[in-house]
Amino acid sequence: MPTAVLYTPEEARRFRAERPPASAVLALSPDARAALRGLDIPVRATTAVYGDSGHARVAALVRRADREIGRALARETALGVAARLTLRHEVQMVAAAAARLWVMLGRSGPGPWLVPEPSGWAVAEERAEAQARLLARIAGLPESFPDPLRQSPFAAPLRWLNRLAARALRSRRVALFTAFQSGMGPLAAGAGALRPPVRAVALRGFRGHANEHLRPFVALWRLARGARATQTLVVPATPSAAASAAARRALGALTGPAVRRGVAAFEDSLLAQTALTEGLVSEMGALIALLRPRALVAHALRWADDAALGEAAAAAGLPSVLISHGSHPPPAGGRGGVVARAVLAPHAEGLLVSPLADAALVQSPHAEAAARAFDPAMPRRRIRPALWAWRGLPEPPVRSPIRTVLHAGTFKRLARARPWMYETADEFVEGLTALVVALESVSAARLVVRLRPASECAPETLRALLPESGRVEVRLGGSFLDDLAAADLLVSFSSTTLEEALHARRPVVLWGGSMRYRHLAARTRPPEPGDRAAVYAPARAEDLGPLIAAVLAAHAGRPLTDAELAAHVWPAGAPDAVAVLDEIAVPLPRRGLGIEPRELAP
Question: What span, in angstroms and rounded, lies between the C-alpha atoms of 16 and 415?
């Protein structure tokens, strides 16, 4: 009988109710696995068929696809820089999802495979057919292509209103922003408090939300009231038919059969986003001409409207500054170093380095080292954290004799993942399971797990799959900063929370469902009261409990010192990002617009 391959909990519940013939189940997500608990046939997690060697194989397939699409895009003169970046990064995502499914199916057995269909079940005798059917199902889920650009049914009046608002918003010092999310909002507010003030205006692409058509009215109303609040204009795009045709030709250059099946499943979305990104550039350029801004401040320049705004700003001769987004470590040597570099470099493009940026503002020594490794020629400025760790910790609560270990990780969904450097959802659960077990041997300690609501592993799924323990709390709401202030130690695999904890002078332990990758250089030897470090990692899985016990004992009530943090945190003299914005409110020299896709990793 075939092996059933199920992804969503709805598919798993339908399988349980209908019981089509199958000898076993491969659950592609913890949600599906939890929905099948107690089933009378074997249910396997993806970690049974997808380990470190699988990650390495997927990374190689993605690297091959990235080189092929890069060469093909270099020949497509109908595509601007933004459209090329958009398509290239989306192909990286699609290639990773397709390759991961291909590897998992190949290691799950010889087949056949039972795959859910919108109505009924299909038996795929061949691995390629099973992969294609699963990709078609996954591509149809909203979370597989989140918040894409769309066409507006009221594009013409929205364009006219945007032009009216842009003329009204023009002032002596205007700075463009790619968004006001995370720390970008407070950063823009700080720029508005300068003397003379810098007015912050964000240009975003239309995504189909009803209230987006009201943005010009909101901007004009705020302006009439004399408010200095940040302003956002939502820009509609007419898709470029020439860009769509060029993108289709570029996709045809991909040669790997497993990746090509992924592209076929996602092709409509890939073409639409490329065509809409190309269409955004000219409209954003028209608004830039009316606003007459002095600079662009970007949190990302890698995809869709962010990249389109970067290209339009470059065409207008505006200096562009990219603030390092997220946590970007330099590629390390040793075991897995080659694979790590192959995934870290494309991940950094558009978030840390970019052909559309004239300079980078780097928030930590790790970001500076990574930027130097991936784009040595790009000018860089050190700043105190602005997009993460930009708020100070609240007053810590009265210390309890029970020590708190805070886990704050970031697993990536199948359709939006990079291999090797990120945990899968099943690896996330397995790493937490091992952590819960290890903590049972640590006296006077509890575990708080902060979980971001996301498909593949819902809170109820995590609670159902973790071992029972009176020491564990899964937390959704509340403030991360409150939890960090109360924590004695942070545990994570590869997340920005690691650097946030270091800035809060909390030690961190690197741990996850695999030991293949270390996001930061870590010490494996347990600390002693007079001999400590900032970052630790167990040398072996069985060392996790003793290491956590030693870290808690050595660091209890004693924050990390400046000397211990020297490799992770800028010294006190690092400038504030708002002060840097004050400097760049006058034009900076541009380093030129690089339009050719670059080789960022060997």
Answer: 25
Exposed (0-12), middle (13-18) or buried (19+): which is 573, by Cβ within 10 Å?
Answer: exposed
- Non-local CB neighbours of 542 within 8 Å, separated by 6+ positions: none
For CATH 3.40.50.11720, list the domain ranges present in the chain. 155-389+578-584
Taking Cα atoms as reference points, which of 91, 87, 108, 145 lies closest to residue 22? 108
Amino acid 584: pLDDT: 59
Residue 502, both tokens: 């270091």
Q: CB 332: neighbour CB atoms within 10 A?
A: 16
Backbone angles phi, psi at 65, to 5 degrees: -65, -40
Residue 93: both structure tokens together = 């995502």
- CB of 203 within 8 A of CB of 318? no
Crossing angle, helix 81-107 and helix 257-291, to 10 degrees?
Answer: 150
Neighbour tally for 570: CB within 10 Å? 19
pLDDT category at 592 given cuts 50, 70, 90 is very low
Residues 28 and 37: beta-carbon distance below 8 Å: no
Nearest to 536 by CA among 482, 571, 492: 492
Q: What does the alpha-carbon distance between residue 205 and residue 155 come to, in Å, rounded to a whole number? A: 11
pLDDT at 595: 33
Burial bucket for residue 334 (CB in 10 Å: 0-12, 13-18, 19+): exposed
* Domain 403-565 listed as CATH 3.30.1490.20: no
Pairwise CA distance, residues 205 & 423, whole Å: 31
DSSP state at residue 140: T
DSSP letter assigned to residue 449 = E
Residue 144 burial (10 A CB sphere; 0-12, 13-18, 19+): buried
Mean pLDDT of the chain: 92
Residue ranges of E strands in 125-255: 174-177, 199-205, 231-235
Q: Are 445 and 402 in contact (CB under 8 A)?
A: yes
Give the single-character DSSP code of 561: P
Residues of the chain with CATH 3.40.50.2000: 403-565
This prediction's pTM: 0.94
CA distance 593 to 373: 20
φ/ψ of residue 288, rounded to 5: -60, -40
CATH class of 155-389+578-584: alpha beta
Average pLDDT over residues 335-347: 86
Distance (Å, whole) CA 352 – CA 87: 19
Q: Are 529 and 554 in contact (CB under 8 A)?
A: yes
